[in-house]
């Protein structure tokens, strides 16, 4: 049998009065049916006071059966025996209905800029550069789930009627670009790699993030799975990370810039700590006091100064010079001026994979430590076979690194205008300091026959050093062959 439901009517109090010889008892039930108050007035003309049995009969008569407060019953009966009045005593209390929770969206990804919680000692600091959240997803990844509204919990009046709950409101959401809704309409998936954006109830995945001004305290740090375009500058202390590329129309300060794609900016003054990590190529107007690692080419229009650059492509300065600092370029180097009149320390390394160079240095240090430990050990305390085995392993690994070849390798340096004294040049396996100025245009490659460098009329970097040197080697072999033939004829 279905229980009767409470239907709220007008905001009026239901009042029930019982008159007996000896007392007057009144029940008042609130408009929502959740509270029952009682009033008791003893008679002034005699009679017997209210008893527990009579109270139970009166409550049953008016169906007040839920939530009767036992403490209030005791108070009422004690007052009746003492011939005292009772005014508005809460006699019964029903249970209110609990509205259902509203539907909501539960994100399936975490903020890429999320930080660890401060420690319990309260020494955690607030990063004011973390202004916005970056909920990044890959194509096919879960974006969010939609939780339907809750039904709520029913209540009950003091008279036992059910108070139906109010259900929660469903979440209002519209599906935007690059979002797929599952068949059950409760799960959202990304159809492209990018950042989750919610604007005016529309949820989408965007792979281009445009910043109209500077990257500053209003914008905060950026970590974006997609392409970032900054129409202003990137101020000191901020970082911008993007997977598909970064374009900065202004300048970059002491910042961290990182992308798997190409990066372009007007200029960068890194003050020795500003860093760029690029999986593509870099183009800029100028670069100064920066630390850069680049998988592609690095092109500067005006100059590169006092920087540490490691590049697996070409380092090229179209108009100005390459001055101060260290530069590693697997595919060659080209610039207007190389070095400076003030002998500012400038080192260039062409045709060498910087990663291999670092690995070789590590192996040399490992071998140095191994030999030092062997030398310092007391005689007879070292296992010679074990020492020889370890040394052979280091040597084998060293030979493996040295034997690596790369298609883009080009140990060649082009100087269009002036090569200054004091520049340290490494081209392939040859390294030396320039002892006097030399006017360009000139191409510098290894001289595999006589040692040192060859200084030749400048050719494009696309004409590789190995091809040029092979011509000299062949010419040398022909001359040697002619000389042998001439000697043989003379002897005959």
SSE layout:
Blueprint: E1 14-20, E2 23-29, E3 35-42, H1 52-61, H2 70-81, E4 86-93, E5 104-107, E6 136-137, E7 142-147, E8 155-156, E9 162-163, E10 174-175, E11 179-181, E12 187-190, E13 194-199, E14 202-206, E15 208-211, E16 222-224, E17 227-230, E18 239-242, E19 245-248, E20 251-252, E21 256-259, E22 263-278, E23 282-294, E24 298-311, E25 315-317, E26 321-329, E27 333-338, E28 346-350, H3 354-376, H4 384-402, E29 413-419, E30 424-427, E31 430-433, E32 438-439, E33 442-446, E34 453-457, H5 465-491
Can you tell me about this structure?
The relative contact order is 0.06. The chain has five helices and 34 strands. Helices cover 18% and strands 37% of the residues. By secondary structure, it is an alpha/beta fold. The chain has helices spanning 52-61, 70-81, 354-376, 384-402, 465-491; strands at 14-20, 23-29, 35-42, 86-93, 104-107, 136-137, 142-147, 155-156, 162-163, 174-175, 179-181, 187-190, 194-199, 202-206, 208-211, 222-224, 227-230, 239-242, 245-248, 251-252, 256-259, 263-278, 282-294, 298-311, 315-317, 321-329, 333-338, 346-350, 413-419, 424-427, 430-433, 438-439, 442-446, 453-457. Residues 116-122 have low confidence and may be disordered. It has a 20-stranded mixed beta sheet that branches. A four-stranded antiparallel beta sheet has the order 1-2-3-4, with helices on one face. A four-stranded antiparallel beta sheet has the order 5-7-12-11, with no helix packed on it. The chain has four domains: 14-93, no CATH class; 101-113 and 130-153 and 163-206, RNA polymerase II/Efflux pump adaptor protein, barrel-sandwich hybrid domain (OB fold (Dihydrolipoamide Acetyltransferase, E2P), Beta Barrel), CATH 2.40.50; 212-357 and 407-465, no CATH class; 358-402. Helix 3 (354-376) packs antiparallel against helix 4. The longest helix is centred in the last third of the chain and has 27 residues, at 465-491.
């Amino acid at each position: 049998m279905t229980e009767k439901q409470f239907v709220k009517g007008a905001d009026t109090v239901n009042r029930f009065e019982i008159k007996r010889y000896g007392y007057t008892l009144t029940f008042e039930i609130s408009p929502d049916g959740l509270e029952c108050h009682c009033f008791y007035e003893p008679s002034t003309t005699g009679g017997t006071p209210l008893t527990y049995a009579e109270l139970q009969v009166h409550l049953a008569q008016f169906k007040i059966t839920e939530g009767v407060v036992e403490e209030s019953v005791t108070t009422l009966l004690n007052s009746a025996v003492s011939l005292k009045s009772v005014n508005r005593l809460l006699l019964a209390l029903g249970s209110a209905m609990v509205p259902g929770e509203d539907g909501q969206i539960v994100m399936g990804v975490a903020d890429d800029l999320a930080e660890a919680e401060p420690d319990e000692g309260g020494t955690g600091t607030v990063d004011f550069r973390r202004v916005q959240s970056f909920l990044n997803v890959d194509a096919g990844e879960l974006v969010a789930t939609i939780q339907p509204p809750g039904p709520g919990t029913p209540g009950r009046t003091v008279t036992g009627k059910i108070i139906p709950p109010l259900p929660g409101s469903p979440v209002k959401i519209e599906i935007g670009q690059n979002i797929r809704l599952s068949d059950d309409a409760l799960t959202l998936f990304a159809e492209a790699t990018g950042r989750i954006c919610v604007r005016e109830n529309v949820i989408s995945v965007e792979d281009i993030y445009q910043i109209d001004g500077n990257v500053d305290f209003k914008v905060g740090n950026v970590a974006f799975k997609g392409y970032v375009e900054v129409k202003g500058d990137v101020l000191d202390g901020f970082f911008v990370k993007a997977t598909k590329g970064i374009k900065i129309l202004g300048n970059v300060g002491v910042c961290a810039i990182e992308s798997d794609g190409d990066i372009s900016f007007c200029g960068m003054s890194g003050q020795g700590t500003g860093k760029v990590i690029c999986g593509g190529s870099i183009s800029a107007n100028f670069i100064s006091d920066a630390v850069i690692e680049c998988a592609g080419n690095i092109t500067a229009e005006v100059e590169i100064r006092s920087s540490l650059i490691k590049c697996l492509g070409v380092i090229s300065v179209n108009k100005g010079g390459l001055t101060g600092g260290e530069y590693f370029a697997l595919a060659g180097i080209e610039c207007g001026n190389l070095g400076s009149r003030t002998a500012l320390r400038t080192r260039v390394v062409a045709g060498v994979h910087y990663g291999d160079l670092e690995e070789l240095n590590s192996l040399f240090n490992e071998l140095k430590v191994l030999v030092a430990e062997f030398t310092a050990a007391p005689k007879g305390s070292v296992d010679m076979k074990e020492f020889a085995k370890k040394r052979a392993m280091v040597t084998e690994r060293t030979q493996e690194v040295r034997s690596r070849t790369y298609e883009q390798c080009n140990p060649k340096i082009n100087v269009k205008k002036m090569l200054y004294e004091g520049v340290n040049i490494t081209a392939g396996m040859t390294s030396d300091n320039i002892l006097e100025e030399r006017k360009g245009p000139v191409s510098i490659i290894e001289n595999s026959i006589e040692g040192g460098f060859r200084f030749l009329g400048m050719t494009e970097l696309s004409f590789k050093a190995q091809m040029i040197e092979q011509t000299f080697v062949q010419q040398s072999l022909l001359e040697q062959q002619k000389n042998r033939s001439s000697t043989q004829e003379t002897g005959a």
